[in-house]
Structure formats: C-alpha cells, structure tokens
Write a structure and sequence with these properties.
The chain has 149 residues and is α+β, with helices and mostly antiparallel strands. The protein has helices spanning 49-59, 68-79, 124-127, 132-137; strands spanning 5-16, 22-34, 88-91, 97-100, 107-110, 116-120.
C-alpha cells in the first residue's frame, strides 16, 4: 500500500454552549495533494475515514445531519440516485463519479469503488462561479449514461 500524501489544512472554530457542550466547525479547508486509492473505506461508505469529521463539520449542516454517520449515509443515499434522469452525472478518466441535482443543489463525488469522496451543496460565494450550473459545467468528465451533454 502506498503512503497517503494528503495534508488537509483547516482553520477550526469552536462554539461552546452552556453546560460545557461544544461543537467544532471547520472552515476554509483545502486538501493538499492526492488521496490514495488504497485508503481503507469506513463501514458507512466514506472512502477515507480520516476526512469524514472534517467534511461533516463543513457540510453536514447542508443536509441537517446530526452526526458524521448520518451525513455519510445521506451521501450514500444520494449516490443511489445515479440512474435518476434528474441528476446530472459525470465520470472522469480515473473513475471518479460526480453527481449534481440541479433542483436540490446536492453535489457528491464518489471513488471508482463507490465510496464517498465528498458531499455538499455548492455555494457560488465560495466556488467562485456565478451559479451552480457553471460550477457543474467546470467539473471534469462526461455523463457515462449519455443522458446529459
């Protein structure tokens, strides 16, 4: 197995509530490098268990997920919509599948083995695109189902 060469840089904020309960939220995270395809997936379908908490902190609120596990399950349920003609799909040459539902703005990326890479709702304020359609258009790959141009 090759060594994983990804460094995730994050700024983290903590919100402390009465009675000592705290929630950590991460913002402005960037992956530096490439994830190894040999990373062992978690039982919840998340491709790299080391990134699940970070993704949940940044995107779990997009889906009202109450836990990282619920967020990962939401991502897997979205992947089951692969054959839904209302969902746009692109597959790149490395086998990564990206899916976007224009009606709900759900966006998921999945490894060739079907495990989740990421799941979120794009926000033009952060993507640098005027709208989510142009963000989708910039994604690499083509529709392997032949439903979308």
């Amino acid at each position: 197995m090759s060594t994983r060469k990804v460094l995730t840089l994050c700024l983290t904020a903590f919100v402390i509530f009465p009675a000592g309960l705290f929630v950590s939220t991460a913002a402005a995270c960037t992956d530096q490098g490439q994830e190894s395809a040999e990373t062992t997936p978690d039982s919840n379908g998340w491709g790299n268990p080391n990134t699940l908490l970070d993704h949940f902190a940044r995107h779990g609120g997009d889906f009202n997920a109450q836990s990282p596990e619920e967020y990962a399950q939401d991502a897997q349920r979205f992947e089951l919509r692969y054959s839904d003609p209302n969902v746009e799909v692109k597959e790149d040459p490395s086998g990564v599948v990206r899916m976007w539902d224009p009606a709900t703005d759900e966006f998921g990326a999945y490894n060739a083995d079907g495990t989740t890479r990421t799941f979120y709702k794009p926000d033009p304020a952060f993507t640098g695109h005027p709208d989510n359609q142009s963000y989708w258009d910039e994604q690499s790959g083509s529709d392997p189902r032949g439903l979308w141009p």
